[in-house]
Specification:
The complex is a heterodimer of chains A (482) and B (206). Chain A is of the alpha+beta class. Chain A has 11 helices and 9 strands. Chain A folds into 3 domains: 3-240, Rhopdopsin 7-helix transmembrane proteins, CATH 1.20.1070; 255-323; 331-476, Heat Shock Protein 90 (2-Layer Sandwich). Chain B is of the alpha/beta class and 206 residues long. Chain B has a 5-stranded parallel beta sheet, with helices on both faces. In chain B, helix 3 (63-72) links the parallel strand 3 and strand 4 (79-83). Classes of the chains: A alpha+beta (482), B alpha/beta (206). The interface between A and B is medium-sized, with 27 and 21 residues.
Amino acid sequence: MDMVTIVWSMVASACLTLGLVHGLVWWQHREKLDRLWFALLAVSTAWFAYFEWSSLRAMGPQSYLEGIRWMQVPTWCMFVCMVGYVLTHLREGNRGLAGLAVGLRTLSVVLAFTLDTGVHFREITGLQRVMFLGTEVTLPVGSPSLLMLVPHGALVAMLVFVVGAAITVWRRGEHRLAVLVGGSVGFFVTLGALQSILGFWQVIKIPPGGSLYFLALLFVTAFELSMETKRVKTLSVELAETRAKSREQVAHFGRVASLGGISVTLAHEINQPLGIILSNAQAAERMLAKDPPDLPEVRAILADIVRENLRASAVIQRTRELLQRKEVSRELVNLSDLAGEVFAIMRRPLQARQVTLAAELAAGLPLVSVDRIQLQQVLLNLMLNACEAMAANPPSERRLSVATRVEGGAVCLAVTDSGPGLPSDVEKIFAPYFTTKPQGLGMGLPICRSIVAAHEGQLLAESAAPRGAVFRVILPVAAVLQ
Amino acid sequence: MNTAPLVYLVDDEPGMCKALTRLLQTEGIRVRSFSSAEEFLAGRQPGEIACLVLDVAMPRCDGPSLQRTLADAGSALPIIFLTGHGDIPLAVRSVQAGAVDFLTKPVQATVLLSAVRRALALAQDRATEQAATVALRTRLELLTAREREVLGHVITGKPSKMIAADLGTGLQTIKVHRMRLMEKLGVASVPDLVRAAERLGVRRSD
């Protein structure tokens, strides 16, 4: 096999492979029309390469003419695909120019098939054999036809169309895309066109190598497309990460927000097993008082009591897990920022309760080392408590103030309400099960205090003047390593 | 028919049904438990002297809905509500709608048992009353048309002389009618007669 045949068949198979790969991509993502155009472009190039090869191997003027006549058909396809590719991939391009290029190309197909000698020659007087890649190839000898201006005009129109589109893309800010597609198409099409034009006008004596240039072009473009695939993949991975993160955040907010409502649920869920235990135990008591006592039944009762007891513990365990994230992760936090985050969660609850929030958040606070979520829970719970305390006030008297400030070596976060104030024995409110809410469990403040204590801080409460209560979270400033 | 008092128990929590059944049975109370309102409506026997211990929060048909259904059907079944959470407005509403008691879980045995006994006594009273009314109605059927006419006048409190004038007949005749109808209705005095007539819905002839 000669070198020319080897090279041209390699070109054709490379084009077909590219076409297959991108065709498959399109098959899986039907909306990616640029992939379809690209695949068709590659297949047309392979087809073109075949006719180019057959013209190079032509033995007589007639078979050479047939070769370049039929070459017009894949060329026409390549033009159409190129236009389609540029329009769908770059999403730019002057449609008039595209129409001109395809129109001229269509005209040259028509001319090639209606004229005896084709578009390129008035007549072919003979063939000459030249050496190319160590192989003897055929070159025509004859008088070039002026009609050749039609396909060459089409080439120029295509070139202007592609380069124009690339320039618009460049202006759009996508420099890499503009250079890769516009630059490569411009460069290789110009080179191929020049060679073919000069060859056909018989200025130079080398065989046309259009398909070689086109293959190079296809490779560059394919590279661009795979870059895009990679970018899309990176993007989708990032998207998935963001989504996972935001889901986690929502779950956190859910946990934070649940602290307020948790006592009600907890009370309800624990009441049921407790009720069953009580009634069973009292039934057993009565049974044992009888003579003779129904011992098998008492045994059954004890089994039921054990089961219900375990159920109640499971509820408590679940709640505890809900309240405490398994891993406590400390980070350096600005309490003013943290308050801002909680305000975002509280915006609707405050609106619903018609409470006016006054925030006095100090700027440039020293950082504290805390578990962000737990501290958010504390502030949220204090704010919800404050709202509850003011529920009996007329809406104009429901004023909630949250302030941050530096106090010596500590940062203080104060939540002040305009409710009825605190009992004289302030410490009582931190005792477990102390509650003023009809459905409360009295666990909110003790949990808050234990969270703050775990951060080496203090949660203090006092009555405010002239009315209301103020809760202060005092946390030590983090020792920052310089 | 078994004459031991009967308690219907409706709670969607099987453990709770079992525990309360045991507790009530130690006091010699018959219990029939159901896990839903629908099951109860299908399985109860309307003739029984009984009360209903009803859980407030149940899936699908909850306690208050069942209470309404029973009231619409004209049931006189006394109802004791059991609830996991002391919802005061709900308690007020259900008691206004005729509930005998509203107890919160966990419920003390003594509290539940005394509520159940009260409800059963009420059921007994209602049943006795109903039976008495039925008996009285049978007696009323025995009265002649003229005696019923006289009854309508007697219960207005008019003396016999005036009734005789109103009906255009002799005093002695009215006295005989009056004696006969009191005998037939099984009452000994005019106040008893008035009460009986009221219960039977006899119209006064003013």
